[in-house]
Amino acid sequence: MSGLRSIESALENGGDHSRGEAVDLYPLDCYYFGFRAQVPFNHESKADRIMRMRANDDAYGMRKCVAAVLLVELFNHPHILLLQIRNSIIKLPGGRLRPNESDVACLKRKLSSKLSDPEDNSEGNSQWEIGECLGVWWKPDFEAPLYPHLPPNVKRPVECTKLYLVKLPESRRFIVPKTQRLIAVPLCRLHDSEETYGTVISGIPQLLSNFSFNFVTPGL
After folding, report:
1. What span, in angstroms and rounded, lies between the C-alpha atoms of 147 and 157?
2. Which helix (H) or strand (E) holds 199?
């Protein structure tokens, strides 16, 4: 059996029990974090990136991306797993859809390629449980930031990014390139931290506000 503690049960007055879906979170130490051979880092300038995005837009149309919200428990508080690249760039795991690829198929493929050992077939695409879409973000033009709503004057956005809650099992191996690492950041630190984590990541606490969390201790 597993020990289960609801985050609401820690509140003296019981809290508001009219919240949405309950999500089971397992302790951070239930997961293994390791490294594999590093991948080449693309030192792309902003101008080169915009040029590449314009070329892809002409060839394939609007850029469609997906990103994963992975949650664990640490110190009786939900933490989100973020990718830190070269100790500077912080982002959600995910990436761009291939032509005619579904959101779920893409996210499973990206999580397997970014967070798993490519030589280990035991934890392939089928092992990722993709939950509900938490939010959609839009980029009106190539140099604009992402917006949570499409501005009314924009008829053809250049990028759409969807955030999905990914439910983690009781245990899993996370393997990332040596130039990257997974960091666990408490949800409370993300709120109002746009300068550090960016618009999308800092807005995740609000997207999760209608969820309740069960802290599960395996073996109890």
Report:
1. 11
2. helix 194-202
What are the φ and ψ backbone dihedral angles of 183, each rounded to 5 degrees? Answer: -115, 145
DSSP state of 66: E
Query: Please, are residues 219 and 29 in contact by the beta-carbon 8 Å criterion?
Result: no
Q: Encode 139-197 in three state secondary structure.
A: ECCCCCCCECCCCCCCCCCCEEEEEEEEECCCCEEEEEECCEEEEEEEHHHHCCCHHHH
210 alpha carbon, distance to own chain's centre: 18
What does pTM read for this prediction?
Answer: 0.88
SS3 109: helix
Q: What is the pLDDT of residues 146-203, one digit of tens each?
A: 999 988 899 999 999 999 999 999 999 999 999 999 999 999 999 889 999 999 999 9
